Amino acid sequence: MTLNVYLSGEIHTDWREQIIDGAKGLDVTFSSPVTDHDASDDCGVAILGAEDNKYWHDHKGAMINAIRTRKAIEDADVVVVRFGEKYRQWNAAFDAGYAAAKGKSLIVLQQPEHDHPLKEVDAAALAVAREPHQVVEILRYVLTGGLSS
């Protein structure tokens, strides 16, 4: 069995690399949004033309990024959504809801202090992990049926 895993959410720490490195040797393919913050924010105006109004600047970028995000979530077997400590990731919450609506297996990665504000998101998830290594262990178990020693 091969798993296609989409890694959504916070882009300011190395959690994606921790999961990808930890999953070496497992039959997993990973995808993610564009994690270059400037490229993600400015892709719309860079491709479609400048905007004087910041709302339309952001709107163009969000629409183009949504093409990638929707395709990746559609293709995913498992969607992992990381909610970071420093920023409110409204886009991550949207991805979690979209994945849940599509019937995707959802793993949320968050700190305990977010349990209350994310209770509805957590209720839609099949697992709520605290650390990237726990996500790796979930993937390992799903693929092999075994636990790490």
Number of helices: 6
Strand content: 15-25%
Radius of gyration: 16 Å
Q: Which topology of the domain at 3-33 and 75-144 does CATH recognise?
A: Rossmann fold
Q: What's the arrangement of strands in the largest beta sheet?
A: 2-1-3-4-5
The shape is: globular
Percent of residues in helical segments?
40-55%
Run of helices and strands: EHEHHEHEHEH
Number of strands: 5
Assign the CATH class of the domain at 3-33 and 75-144.
Answer: Alpha Beta
* CATH arch. level architecture of the domain at 3-33 and 75-144: 3-Layer(aba) Sandwich
**Mean pLDDT over the full residue set:** 95
User: Strand pairing plus helix content: what structural class?
Assistant: alpha/beta
Biggest sheet architecture: 5 strands, parallel
Separation of termini? 22 Å
| Poorly predicted tracts of residues | none
Explained architecture:
This is YtoQ family protein. Pfam families: Nuc_deoxyri_tr3. InterPro entries: YtoQ_family_protein. With 149 residues, this protein is of the alpha/beta class. It has a domain at 3-33 and 75-144: Rossmann fold (3-Layer(aba) Sandwich), CATH 3.40.50.450. The protein is built from six helices and five strands; from the N terminus they run βαβααβαβαβα. Strands 2-1-3-4-5 form a five-stranded parallel sheet, with helices on both faces. The mean pLDDT is 95.
Q: Would you summarize the structure shown here?
A:
This protein is an alpha/beta fold. Helix content is 49%, strand content 16%.
